[in-house]
Amino acid sequence: MAITTRASGNGLASRRIVSRPTISRSTRTLLGAGGVIGFLILWQVAASTGLVNDLFTSSPVAIAQAAVVLIADGTLPAAIASSAVVFAAGFGISLVVGLIIGLILGWYRRVNAVVDPLVSLLYATPTLALLPLITVWFGIGFSSQVVVVVLISIFPVILNTAAGVSAVDREHIRLAQSYLATNTDVLRTIALPGAVPSVVAGIRQGLTLSLIGVVVAEYFYGNTGVGGLIFTSALSLDTADALVGVLVFAATALLLTFALGTIQRKLDKWRQ
Amino acid sequence: MATVNTLNTANERLSTMSTTAPAAGLEVVDLGKTYKRRGQKASTSQRVLDNVSLSVEAGEFVTLIGHSGCGKTTLLNCVAGLTDFNDGQIRMHGKPIQGPGPDRAVVFQHASLLPWRTIERNVAYGLELRRQMSSAEIKQRVASAIELVGLSGYASHYPHEVSGGMQQRVNLARALAVEPDLVLMDEPFGALDAMTKESLQDQLMALADREKRTTIFVTHDIHEAVYLADRVVLMTPKPGKISKQVVVPFGRNRTRALTETREFNDLVRELRELLTESEASV
Ligand SMILES: Nc1ncnc2c1ncn2[C@@H]1O[C@H](COP(=O)(O)OP(=O)(O)OP(=O)(O)O)[C@@H](O)[C@H]1O
Ligand SMILES: [Mg+2]
Fold it and tell me: What does pTM read for this prediction?
């Protein structure tokens, strides 16, 4: 006990907080790009020299070649289109239904009291455990895929929206009342605008989870889309093709997060 | 030695003053308020206001002072219609009030600005909720309210981008924008530093002289109370009562120089003694 205290004390003392130089944004980007390129070169060299078995690891060049072929023969565009439809349907439903349910739960205390335990129970249930049952209820195909995406992504939207809407400042309510605001006015001018940051955070989580949902749904129901491409390619040891699929998901996730981050910054202009 | 006018003389003064003014702006009659709190074992009740009577003439600037917890905010909230009361009556222009009304506006203790609205849209908030004006009219009214409190050039800033003093001016502009008959101000300068506070007091005073808007201004600060007021109302706690009312004999169009005069400081001292006395006697 005494030793750990002393050790951590020394650690703190030896850390120089004063002179931590910050690096500029462009330097950061440059260093980051360098890291990725360095990794790709190492990978390529390791694969070409036989240091690793490229049957399992593939290589950047092989992946690029595979991508060109998959695009040229129309496989990848078709897979992306198929996945995009599942994603759009699932995330779209999560967004619309999640916002509405969240708004109702956040605003009507009584409804919340009734529904909240139910929502928590559903949220706590691992969606993957439900997959076989979803098959029973919805069959194998598009509807089951959409249901999985919705079940995986809707809860953060609901819960964050509800939390944002219900967290109104009492002083703001008094202010509104002093100007004869109706309940709808309070909702419109205080609860909703105040909830925006929390809602956007929920949508952001929902977005990422929807992508995961698409992969899971495609693995489990019919091997369609980009998820299906990854699954079947990997089974036949076409690691390059499989990794093309993985890259598509990674790029999509990055792109969507970036886009939402930009929107979020715009909406959050009023916060410190 | 300045003369402290008690309630009777105050009323005489007012009755001679207000011959041209419309019927009394605000009348609070025998107001009583009890807070009931449900405890774990037994519910307790606390008499916060008892037999409070106060009338404020149109155009008058009244300051309300008293120790912390004596019920100033409660009284103000009752008048604003934000808190209900148990006994007595509150009348505006002779009619009993039922809840908040367009004839009254509150300047809150904490600025209570909506952080997602710009200064301009915060000032517009009350007007928007009243839905009586076109957006063009609102824009015009807001612009002049912003100018009135000296915030031109900051209209499109967000609250977190301006200082605490400026936020209080927005708070004030928002109330003035609806052109209420009665402005209720709850320690609006309480949280500000001394310099900002003085400059806001001067601006408020200039505004009050120009606009002649009936005002009740709550404060802890006796100096502030005397400097701003036509009449100072003293409250004592447990239960909250009005113990004295003192007419300030300095006329309007005051300047800072007044606060250096002997008469001013004598009056401040007398009020301070009255306040200490009244507390000691509880
Ligand atoms: N919502 C409430 N429930 C129960 N008691 C309350 C409530 N609000 C105020 N009180 C009590 O009423 C009394 C008067 O409170 P009030 O806020 O009116 O005082 P005040 O004069 O404005 O004080 P300060 O100068 O500190 O703002 C206090 O003793 C307080 O504890
Ligand atoms: Mg108070």
Answer: 0.77
